[in-house]
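Before relying on records like the one below, remember that each one covers exactly one chain. Contacts with other chains, cofactors or solvent are not represented anywhere in the record.
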Amino acid sequence: MKKLLITAGLLGLFVATIASAAVPKFSAQDLEGQTHNLSDYKGKMLVVNFWATWCPPCLEELPELTIFHETHKDKDAIVLGVNFEDIKRAGLVKFLDEQMIDYPMLAMAPAPATSLGRVIGLPTTYLISPDQTKMKVHVGPLTGKDLEKYLKEFE
């Protein structure tokens, strides 16, 4: 998994836009066992952020994601975190509490690809339009300014 982080650093910042009739289906369980499907969030921009506790750029962007989620969750966007590492649930819950992360957190075992696409480095974020017909992929840390820019692009 640490190779993914090194790869992201070597590639620098990578952003791609994928347009299709529909974004691929994706679902995962949160830490309470509730299943989250992308279709549950139609009508809002969705920020699906793959990250790990050992990844410094991931930790750098956590406060930005938290602020963005708090600002937009009741209006036009939501953040879904996807912890992408082998970590015990109790350890992850403790970490999230310490960092005051309160957006929905899903957990997945690391894999080279997900139904959304490849995770070529961490953090990798899939930004999905409210109508779920467009998706952007951002590899590297995001700032609040980046997130606001993506939100405007999807309007």
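The beta strands are 14-19, 27-29, 35-37, 45-51, 77-84, 105-108, 113-114, 117-118, 124-128, 134-139.
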